[in-house]
Amino acid sequence: MIEVKDLRKTFKVARREAGFGEAVKALFHREYEYIHALDGVSFSIRDGEMVGYIGPNGAGKSSTIKILSGILTPDSGICTVGGRTPWKERRAHVKGIGVVFGQRSQLWWDVPVIDSFELLKEIYSIPGSVYSKNLSELTETLDLSKIVKTPARQLSLGQRMRCEIAASLLHDPKVLFLDEPTIGLDAVSKLAVRDFIKRRNQDHGTTVILTTHDMQDIEALASRIILIGKGKILLDGTLDDIRRGGEHIDETVAELYKKFDV
Amino acid sequence: MKLYLKYFEIHLKSAMQFKGSFFATIISQFLTAFTVFLGITFMFGRFNSVDGFTYEEVVLCYAIILMGFGLSQLFASGFKVFDSMIGNGQFDRILCRPRNEIFQVLSQRIDFVRLGMLFQAVVMLVYSLVTCPVDWTFSRVLTVIFMIAGGFVLFSALFLLDGSIAFFTIQGLEVMNVFTYGALEHGKYPLSIYGRKMLTFCTFVIPYALIQYYPLTYVLGRTERLWYMFLPIIACLFVVPCWIVWRIGVSRYKSTGS
Predict the structure, then answer these.
(1) Residue A260: predicted pLDDT
(2) Residue B173: predicted pLDDT
(3) Which domain covers residue B194, as residue numbers?
(4) Chain B partners within 8 Å of A11 (Cβ)
């Protein structure tokens, strides 16, 4: 389903010391530093897998997700999702994927959520019957019936996240990218979101790729873990592989980060 | 097109959420354009003509330019806020959707408050159509329509270029306002009054004169050259280089933050 081979992406970042003088200096002469966000990343993911993509901040998680979802073009490497190269056939590619950015909303702020959904129906050219079937299913499983008529700005974060997830699934994507879907959610909402993702994967066979810092997400959802650090894949295996004893999952991961020095 | 209407509907709904500020801004837009109109009027209280153009003719010229500018502000202002779309990740979202990027940027913002500006333009246009001593033949009416449409396209192309620059600087460049707001400011008078050099610049570099001065002389019967009426269409070719810059920008797009 997803094939990634030797993906590389470098960003040029301006650097300067703190202080006003340095800021003035930087105006005229700037020093650049090259950050290898992705330094030869390869993995493959089968249909219907649920993969937790983890790593410390700045490890290259988001860059990978952005390349897979057609937002970024890598410097080199091969990447296909369902046989298509995302950045080359962007429009055909994005029809088959759903993306949730936990920190960014895709809903229209000032109008009821249902209006955003209706707009997405047009954007993805979803046939009327498919749309109403998906909408009623999502409304039921995510318990949206009471909140879809409320403007997005008046929803709580947990309610909004449920709507975000519904919005990215209206067009029946085969692959779902979740970038920190539980960030900032309370315990009840977290459980609801996790439960839903799990059911979606089981009932629809949706391939799920999940980035998160919340290790309980991983524990609850991901049968497979890919650990990335400094732009390289450090580990690719199951949760049981990395776990040695009865210790807490957070400790296990912190131990891993230390071991790989990332 | 159906999708654009859907966007239109949602923008209208959003705008109507805040009735007070919505109408207040429309009125202020009207008043802003109105003061410029007053400025022209007062000036003609002292002078009878500017470079051979009468008061009514200048009002016609300003009405046409303001109409083109207002339309492009109404429909193409997505590009004006494009730097913030890059900054807040909205453009990432656009790239995740199976639609053309330019179409989506345009759809992100429909600036209804510009209706105030357009209303002022309509008032002046009607006034000058009635008062200008012009024999309104079919081809002249068509020329005015071409000028407005050409102005709309030209200003939109400039907004597109302005937006594209954000790909390279991440933050927009105020410099571009010289070519949009500045052109509106100067465009209220026929461009010939600024002299030969300015006219050459506005003919071959940024083709303002092709949507304004040359076709205007045809409308006002100062030239017999019928082909002047098609110059606004030629001016639309200015979109091409702007679009190329945009394409380069999209291919180099870096995204921001997490």
Answers:
(1) 79
(2) 67
(3) 22-251
(4) 254
List chain A residues with CB under 8 Å of B94. none
DSSP code at position A103: T
- Closest to B234 measured CA to CA, from B256, B189, B203, B258: B203
The answer to whether residue A214 neighbours chain B at the CB level (below 8 Å) is no
A101, A195, A209, B95, B156 from A179: Cα distances, Å: 5, 17, 8, 16, 35
ipTM, 2 dp: 0.87
Does some domain include residue B35? yes
Q: Burial letters for B39-70: b for 16+ Cβ neighbours within 10 Å, e otherwise?
A: ebeeebeeeeebeebbbbbbbbbbbbbbbbbb
pLDDT at B257 over 60: no
pLDDT over 90, % of chain B: 59
**Average pLDDT across chain B, whole number:** 90
Give the tens place of pLDDT for each residue, A89-133: 999 999 999 999 988 889 998 899 999 999 999 999 999 999 999
Q: B3–A91: do the CB atoms touch at under 8 Å?
A: no
Q: Which of B92, B171, B248 to mutate to test the interface with A (most CBs of A within 10 A)?
A: B92
Using the Cβ of A97 and the Cβ atoms of chain B, whether some distance falls under 8 Å is answered with: yes
Please indicate if any CB of chain B lies within 8 Å of the CB of A9.
Answer: no
For chains A and B, count residue pairs whose Cβ atoms are closer than 8 Å. Answer: 70
Closest chain B residue to A63 measured between Cα atoms? Answer: B258
Q: How many domains is chain B partitioned into structurally?
A: 1
Is B69 a domain residue? yes
Say yes or no: A73 contacts chain B, CB-CB below 8 A: yes
Q: Which domains does chain A have, with CATH numbers?
A: 2-106+168-260 (3.40.50.300)
